[in-house]
Each structure stands twice: as structure tokens, then as C-alpha cells.
Amino acid sequence: MIINNDKSSQKNNAISPFEETKVEEGFLVLVYKNDGNETQSLIKEIHSDYIQFHFCVKGTSKFVFNEGRYVLNILEENSLLLYNPQRNLPINLEVNRNSWMVSVLISIKKFHGLFSQEADYISFLNEDNKDKKYYKDGSITPSMAIVLNQLINYNLNKSIKDLYFKGKAYELLSLYFNRSEEANIEQCPFLVDETNVIKIRKAKEIIVARMAEPPSLQELADEIGLNLKKLKEGFKQIYGDSVFSFLLDYKMEVARKLLESGENNVNEVGLKVGYSTASHFIAAFKKKYGTTPKKYIMSLS
């Protein structure tokens, strides 16, 4: 549960509430535009179950923690992610004049549901990780800035506002966690501890390197030092698929590139990616791409 509290201990600042839109249960969007000439204080009690995403679209703002003993600035076109399962982390935000802020609050259960269909069974809040805090700052990308400004400057019919904000909130999180070469994001954030992430990545490297003759799941689990259950669950969370579904997709992508190169015939490509018979390779390729390897090669001419 999120509790509102608009009382402020900042004597010299004007007090204003966020414009709050409920996207879904456990999912809120807060918007605030300070177009005035004085700093505005925004205070909101947040339960420890919630992850906070804050975006400074314009101007500057600062978060005040521990009754003013610690201050964290957030500059224009920057974002801040906060999560503390150990204690409630209230928003105590001072928005400077001519500054705009957008905040997205989402419960950890709801957040896991965005990344895994097994959110009720796979939680990073296990005995090893349940007390860990998470903090991340970053820049707002141009595509994110477009969505944020659409949220701030909403001027459509009031009857569709909730639906509009729901779509934009999901779009914003998708852009925030978009995988890129620079970010190297290969996991649902807050998933498992770094040691287990490294082991799961090692598992991926092993099956990719030995795709023609991959180990069994149990052999793979033994090799990386995880039990079978954690291997299956962790791989699904990090890569969004089971080990062998991931491997199948990888094989087909390698096969497609080999066919495009023209250096191998269909039988040779099938053998390279682990198929002892051409018929099995052709069937798998057709299921993946909707055409046979031979027809695919002909389509390239």
C-alpha cells in the first residue's frame, strides 16, 4: 500500500501534491510541473515493496533523506532508480523553479510480472538477496524524453487519461530497460545476486560454444555450480526463455547466417549447428522461419 502525506517540514517552501494516475494495482505515475518562481516540496510515503523510477525532464530537483542529513541531486534529462526492501523509502523531493518531474512507482511483484510469467514463484527477495538495496542513476534517452513530455503535457479527453497513461508507463519502462550494447543489460534488474548472474551467463557461453553437442541440463548445472532448479529459473529470468529454447533460436540464427554466406550447403550447415540428419535440420529451420533452407537461399538471389 502507498500512503499519501502532503505535510512538509520545509518551512520556506511551498507545498504541492503530485498529479497522480493509477496505472494498475501496484503501479502509479506521478507528474509534477513547477512553472513558478519558488521551490516546491513534494512528500509521499512509499512502502518498501515499491521500486521508484524518477525522471527530471526539465530543470533540477533534489531528494532529501534522513531528515535532511543526506541530499541527492537529480539534474535535467537524468533519471534515478531507488529500491530499498529494508525500510520504507519516502519521497521527500524539492523541485526547483521551472522544473518538471515524472515518477513511476511499481510494486516488486508487479515489476517481476513484467519480466517473467513465473513472478509468483521466482523472487529475488530470497534469503540471499532480500536485504539488498538498489540504486542507479542514468540519462534520459531521446525516445524516453518524448514519452515523458507526452505524460507531462497530456491534453486529450479526460475519459481516456488512465488508458493513455497506462500505455505510456509501459512504453517508458520498456525504453528504460531496452537492451543495448552500451548498457549490456542481460537480466531483469533485482533478479539474483551477481554471483548467480555470472554463473547463468557462463551457462549461456557453454551451450553457445558447444551448440552442436550441448551438455544435458544436469551436466550444465553441475558445470556452473548451481542446482538444476536455480539454473532453469535463473536462465528463464535473464534470457526470457528456457535453456534449450534459447539454444534452438541461437542455432537457427547461426544457420541462417551460414546459409547467407554461401560457403556451406544445407547438409553442412545442419551438421555445424548440431543436426545429424538433414531432414531434422530442415524441419527445425522451417518451423522457425516459415521456409526451407533451400528456399531461403534462393530468396537471397
Describe the structure.
It is a single chain. Strands 1, 2, 5, 7, 8 and 10 form a six-stranded mixed beta sheet that branches. With 301 residues, the protein is an alpha+beta fold. The radius of gyration is 24 Å and the shape is elongated. Helices cover 39% and strands 23% of the residues. Strand 3 and strand 4 form a beta hairpin. It is built from ten helices and twelve strands.
Helix content: 25-40%
- Ends distance: 60 Å
Estimated share of beta-strand residues: 15-25%
Please state the structural category.
alpha+beta
Mean of the pLDDT scores?
80
Over all CA atoms, what is the radius of gyration? 24 Å
Please provide the ordered H/E string of secondary-structure elements: EEEEEEEEEEEHEHHHHHHHHH
Total of DSSP H or I helical runs spanning 4+ residues: 10
- Low-confidence segments, ≥5 residues, pLDDT <50? 1-13, 117-127, 179-192
Number of strands: 12
User: How can the largest sheet be summarized?
Assistant: 6 strands, mixed
- What global shape is seen? elongated
